[in-house]
Amino acid sequence: MVRIATFNVSMEEENYPIEQELEKGSSVLQYHLSTGRNQQMRNIAEILQRTRPDIVLLNEFDFIEDRSKGVDAFQQNYLSIAQHESVSPINYPHIFLAPTNTGAPSPYDFDQDGVASGVGGDAWGFGKYPGQYGMVLLSRFPINKEEARTLQLFKWSDMPGALQPKHPETNQPWFSQEQWQALRLSSKSHWDVPVMVGEKRIHVLAQHPTPPVFDGPENRNGLRNHDELRLTADYLSEETSTYIYDDKGNRGGLSGDRFVILGDLNASIYSDATYPGAMERLLNHPKVNSDFIPTSRAGAAVVPELPYAKEFTAAWKSRADYVLPSKSGFNVIDGAVFWPEKNSPLYRLVESREASSDHRLVWLELEMVD
Endonuclease/exonuclease/phosphatase domain spans which residues (predicted)? Predict the structure, then answer.
């Protein structure tokens, strides 16, 4: 058995107060990671200690290249310390970390406000500083880093039939030809990370597409979200992945049949903000097992009249976070959304965004089969 989870932890710089003057070269996030005292981080660690995933993707964990000040500090000062008398520490000896497009400065005025600022809407992916809203993969099992693939640099225009945004008034392209030829598709990055469970390999397909909102009538974020999801769907099959290349220049898609798609996908079949067909392409893919939907009773209580509210993974009333295994190589045994009800003593872990996150951890228990 292997338990695999995804969790948008909202661990980005702007979430945290400054408690004292920082050392030169440090950040507010790094300070709180170093102390072991931040209650939000303690709660996030406790959620992980209670659910105990073997493999977990943390979305919105700012990219800090110096691991000793970032993910290693989170392990040492939070995960390795029991956060409640009823839980045990949890250790992830294997970590995959790589840069993202968020906040990485571009020379272009992508948002067309008249200023090429290099940040925010003018970065390769929206972010106010490099690495904001990054991601990190934690694993109890070995990671084959040599064969891991990242698609951070793949150009949106290199996708055949890409949904190029247009000015609604003129029907002309939103981006100039130079911008369109340069713009990267992934708002963060797309990863294919092989994790070895004994002799069996799991391809962890990690991502965090842009929210399909925060733009204008041109819907550039909605179209980008659609095509980021399409990139994952196309990656799964030989016949649809011929156009794809990774950051090392290697072409083609998945080199195996056992995979799990992980991440805050910012898309739902029930959301009007999601471009039509974006999630259906993944959920209905012939290689994806989407039959088991993780749920929670607390989510169901958010909007009791909606039968699908039990599927919510975010406080803002949506199923946004997914663990989607391949049909081949797994039997789905169990799964859930970690969302304690209001009458539970564990509700303190999710009662607000400040308590932990506005997202909930989602997990599946998978039996590996030949």
Answer: 5-359
- pTM of the entire structure? 0.97
Contact of 193 with 255, CB cutoff 8 Å: no
Amino acid symbol at 30: Q
- What residue ranges define each of the domains in the chain, with the CATH number in brackets? 2-368 (3.60.10.10)
**Cα–Cα distance between 206 and 190 in angstroms, integer?**
6
pLDDT tens-place string over residues 261-292 = 999 999 999 999 999 999 999 999 999 999 99
**Segment 185-212, tens digit of pLDDT:** 999 999 999 999 999 999 999 999 999 9
Determine the pLDDT at residue 16.
84
Strand (E) or helix (H) holding 264? strand 259-264
* Token reading at 22: 């920082």
On the CB side of 342, CA atoms within 13 Å amount to 5
Q: What is the Cα–Cα distance from 143 to 349, expressed in whole angstroms?
A: 30
Predicted confidence at residue 14, as pLDDT, reads: 86
- 324 phi/psi in degrees, rounded to 5: -120, 105
Rounded to whole angstroms, how far apart are CA atoms 304 and 184?
Answer: 40
Dig out the tokens for 279 from the structure: 């999630």
Spans in the chain with pLDDT lower than 70: 19-21, 23-25
Written as six digits, the tokens of 176 are 């100039």
Evaluate whether 150 touches 190 at the Cβ level (below 8 Å). Answer: yes
Give residues with Cβ within 8 angstroms of 314, minimum separation 6. 8, 320, 321, 358, 359, 360
Q: Are 240 and 253 in contact (CB under 8 A)?
A: yes
What are 134's two structure tokens? 């990054």
Assess contact for 260 and 5: CB atoms under 8 A. Answer: no
pLDDT tens for each residue of 39-52: 999 999 999 999 99
* CA torsion angle 197 88 52 133 (round to 10): -110
